Amino acid sequence: MEKKKESSPQGTPPDITSDKKVVSAAHYASRIEAVKDLIFGEDNAEIRTRLEQLDEKIDAQITALNERLSGVIDDQDKTTLARIDNMEMDLKAEIDRLDHSKADRVQLGKMLMEMGKALLEE
User: Fold this and answer.
1) Higher model confidence: residue 28 or residue 70?
2) Prediction pTM value
């Protein structure tokens, strides 16, 4: 026994199992779009225009923020490099001071040895 295919009620999308029915579904979809355009056409165009303007505004703001962020990063890099340079100079100065202090101790030790020899010779 074969079952008869039930036809879909008027106004509902058909089952998409056959090519004819797929075409019908596409036909319904295009009709729905046409009705939407008739009802919302002007509003839809206005909304699209406003969305495009908002997109452009957001893109401009993103570009401005990226440029500003790049400037801040560059300034921070310069500041950081300057601080590193200052720290290096301070470190070198401290090393030189310690080396000088060390040399003074050696010099003092030599002088003490010479004084000790001089005292022993007398």
Assistant:
1) 70
2) 0.45
